[in-house]
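Thread: "does anyone have the structure for this chain?"

Original post by V.I.:
We have the sequence but no experimental structure in hand. Need at least a predicted one for the grant figures.
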Amino acid sequence: MLSAKDLYKEILDNDDTFRLFCSIAAAGETQGGWENARISDLVPDSYRELAPKVARHGADEDKHGRIFNALMKKRGLEPVAVPAETDYTMLLEGIGIGLAHDRLRRDGQLTEADIITYLAHSRVTEQRASDQMRMLLRYFGDHPDIGRAVRMISHDEDNHLAYCHEELLTMAAHGHGRRVEAALREAALAEIRVYRDVSHAVMAHMGRILKWSRARRALLSAGIDAIYAYERAGGWRRMVRLRMPEFRDALGGPPPRTAAEFA
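Reply from O.Q.:
Generated one for you, tokens below.
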């Protein structure tokens, strides 16, 4: 039986699949860094206290992108172009989830509705990121090459998720509960579809590089579809529940650590 740990180990041990994995991750994190930086610049006056936290979120994401690039450099690898069908961030934008890049490139303050859209999108995607990093932490937290990176990124993603919970609960307490609920539901139901499609695309690329058998590809494809079926049947609800985190003001602390140590 193929385990998730064995699958990821195979991907991480091969230079070509490791490079593709890190390139996809770096591109997504860097894109998230840019988005959050722009949102922090455009936060409306009524939410200016949110701007430093959004900026911190963006700085963390940008740092993660640099960490993935540093991990490649450490193995003497150069990034590769990210296949469009594996670009999780842009595929979500393409179906209207989150704030459109065209809007973020323009000057002019965002609206209150925009802030709710941003936070709901972040709460859903950070749940996915936190889940994935916790899995990698469980399997590779002590890995000699990537362990420190996994531990740092997992910690950051948990902080991002806590921040989203706290800010959305504050919005709901201020009378925006129904709008928050609707935005979360829309984002979650769209995200699980995109995640399924991206997972299929990534595994197809990995399979070609590693020369997986047709039977193995079919098994992995069936596993991805089974996860989607579970999430579509109700698993998506974990992405929309809100609870006040034990650790408050998760993004109100000092600036993020440098990524240079991973080079």
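V.I.: this helps a lot. The mean pLDDT is 94.
O.Q.: and The helical segments are 4-13, 15-42, 51-74, 88-94, 101-105, 112-140, 147-210, 214-233.
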